[in-house]
Write a sequence for this structure.
C-alpha cells in the first residue's frame, strides 16, 4: 500500500516542480547562454528548391552546397526537391507568400515570372568581381527583361549530331554530314535491312517531332515561332519550308524514324539500341550512352547546316531569387557562389552538364573534348528554347498538329494553321 506524504512536504514538492518547469520554459525560449556570450547569432537558413534529377546529380549538388556552407558558416542551405508539377508548385507558393529564397527556373518559364514581378532583379547585387561578361551572352539573354537580369544560368546544353562510328565504317562513310542535304544522302546509305528479312532494322536518322527540337529549323528559313507579344507565328510559309524537309525524310524517303516507331522512349535510347545510326541530341545523352551502352562506338559533330545556316537549340536553367525572400543578401551569396567560377567548376566537373562560364569551359577543356566540343561550339549560334509568356499553349498545339502531319493525316500547312489558331485562341483567353 502506498503511504501518503505529509501535506507540507507535498506542497513543497509541487512548488519546486512548478518552479523547475517554468524556468525550463523561460530558458528554452531564450538564446543559448554561450551564443550570447560569444556574440554569435544562429545561422540564416536558406531554402533552395529544384526539380528531381538523377541521384548522381543530386549528390553532386549536395556536395557543392556543403562546400558553400564551409565557406559561409553563417548560412545553411536546405535543398528541397519538388518531384512533380514543379512550376505549378512554385507558382502556388509565390502567390501564397511561401516561395523558396532561391529556386531553379527554366528559360522556357522565365518570361511569365519576370513579367509578374515576383523575381528579385539582380543588377544591384552584381559587381565587377562576379565577372558577368564571362557568362555566355546567349545563355543570359533568356533571363533579362527591360534591362534587368532576373536569373543567372547554372548550366546548359545545345543539340549536336550523334553518329554511330561502326555503322559509318560499315557503310564506307568517312566523315559526318556538314549540310542537311548531305545528312539526307548519308541517311539513305545507313538505312538498312541488315537481316535480309524485308524489315528495316537500322534507320539513318532518329527524329523527335516536337517544337523544342525543331524551332531552329523554322528560323533557318526566316520563320519565327512567336511574335514579340508572345503569340504563335509558326504557320508562315518560311516555317513550312523548313519543317517540310523533316516530313519528306520521314514519309517519302523513309530514312528517318521517331522513338515510338521502334519501341523506344527517346532519341538517345533508339540510338543506343542501334535502331538509328544518327540522332540529334543534347549533352545529357553522353553519360546515358556511356553508362547504358558501354560497347557503343559513337562520336558527335555540330548539327548540319540547314539552308546554309548554322543552327541548333540551347536549353538552360537559372538560379533566381524570390522577391519575397527575407534573406536577400544571403540568397545572393548562394547564387553568386553556385554560378561563380568555383561553384560552377565543381557542379559541371563530372561532365553531365556544361558550364555557362567560358573560363570554366576552358578550365575543364570541354571546348576540346572529343564528345562535347560540338555542343560547346553550338552555343554561339543556338536558338534559346523560349517561346514567350504562354509557352505551353504555343508548344502543345504545335506538337499535336505536327505529329498529325508527320503521320500523313493532314497537310503540313493545314496542321500549322490549326496549331497557330488554337494556340492564339488559348493565349487570348488567358490574358
Amino acid at each position: 500500500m502506498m503511504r501518503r506524504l505529509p501535506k507540507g512536504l507535498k506542497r513543497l514538492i509541487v512548488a519546486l516542480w512548478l518552479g523547475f518547469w517554468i524556468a525550463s520554459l523561460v530558458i528554452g525560449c531564450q538564446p543559448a547562454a554561450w551564443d550570447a556570450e560569444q556574440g554569435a547569432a544562429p545561422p540564416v537558413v536558406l531554402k533552395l528548391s529544384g526539380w528531381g534529377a538523377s541521384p548522381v546529380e543530386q549528390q553532386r549538388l549536395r556536395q557543392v552546397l556543403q562546400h558553400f556552407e564551409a565557406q559561409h558558416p553563417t548560412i545553411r542551405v536546405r535543398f528541397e526537391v519538388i518531384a512533380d508539377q514543379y512550376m505549378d508548385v512554385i507558382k502556388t507558393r509565390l502567390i501564397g507568400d511561401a516561395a523558396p529564397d532561391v529556386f531553379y527556373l527554366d528559360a522556357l518559364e522565365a518570361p511569365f515570372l519576370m513579367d509578374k514581378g515576383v523575381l528579385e532583379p539582380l543588377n544591384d547585387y552584381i559587381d565587377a568581381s562576379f565577372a558577368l561578361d564571362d557568362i555566355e551572352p546567349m545563355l543570359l539573354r533568356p533571363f533579362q527583361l527591360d534591362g534587368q537580369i532576373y536569373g543567372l544560368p547554372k548550366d546548359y546544353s545545345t543539340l549536336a549530331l550523334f553518329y554511330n562510328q561502326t555503322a559509318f565504317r560499315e557503310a564506307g562513310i568517312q566523315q559526318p554530314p556538314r549540310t542537311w542535304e548531305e545528312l539526307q544522302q548519308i541517311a539513305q546509305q545507313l538505312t538498312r535491312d541488315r537481316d535480309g528479312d524485308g524489315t528495316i532494322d537500322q534507320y539513318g536518322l532518329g527524329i523527335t517531332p516536337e517544337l523544342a527540337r525543331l524551332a531552329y529549323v523554322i528560323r533557318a528559313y526566316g520563320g519565327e515561332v512567336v511574335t514579340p507579344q508572345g503569340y504563335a507565328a509558326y504557320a508562315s510559309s518560311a516555317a513550312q519550308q523548313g519543317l517540310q524537309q523533316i516530313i519528306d525524310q520521314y514519309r517519302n524517303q523513309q530514312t528517318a524514324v521517331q522513338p515510338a516507331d521502334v519501341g523506344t522512349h527517346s532519341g538517345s535510347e533508339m540510338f543506343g539500341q542501334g535502331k538509328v545510326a544518327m540522332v540529334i541530341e543534347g549533352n545529357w545523352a553522353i553519360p546515358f550512352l556511356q553508362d547504358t551502352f558501354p560497347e557503343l562506338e559513337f562520336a558527335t559533330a555540330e548539327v548540319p547546316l540547314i539552308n546554309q545556316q548554322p543552327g541548333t537549340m540551347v536549353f538552360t536553367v537559372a538560379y533566381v531569387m524570390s522577391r519575397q525572400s527575407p534573406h536577400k543578401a544571403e540568397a545572393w551569396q548562394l547564387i553568386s557562389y553556385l554560378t561563380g567560377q568555383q561553384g560552377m567548376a565543381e557542379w559541371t566537373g563530372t561532365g553531365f552538364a556544361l558550364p555557362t562560364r567560358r573560363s570554366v569551359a576552358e578550365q575543364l577543356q570541354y571546348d576540346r573534348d572529343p564528345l562535347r566540343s560540338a555542343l560547346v561550339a553550338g552555343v554561339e549560334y543556338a536558338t534559346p528554347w523560349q517561346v514567350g509568356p504562354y509557352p505551353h499553349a504555343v508548344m502543345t498545339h504545335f506538337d499535336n498538329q505536327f505529329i498529325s502531319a508527320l503521320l500523313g493525316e493532314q497537310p503540313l500547312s493545314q496542321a500549322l494553321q490549326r496549331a497557330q489558331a488554337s494556340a492564339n485562341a488559348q493565349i487570348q483567353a488567358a490574358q
User: Anything to note?
Assistant: The chain has 18 helices and twelve strands. The domain at 44-156+315-384 is CATH 3.40.190.10 (D-Maltodextrin-Binding Protein; domain 2). Residues 33 and 155 are 44 Å apart (CA to CA). The longest strand covers residues 152-164.
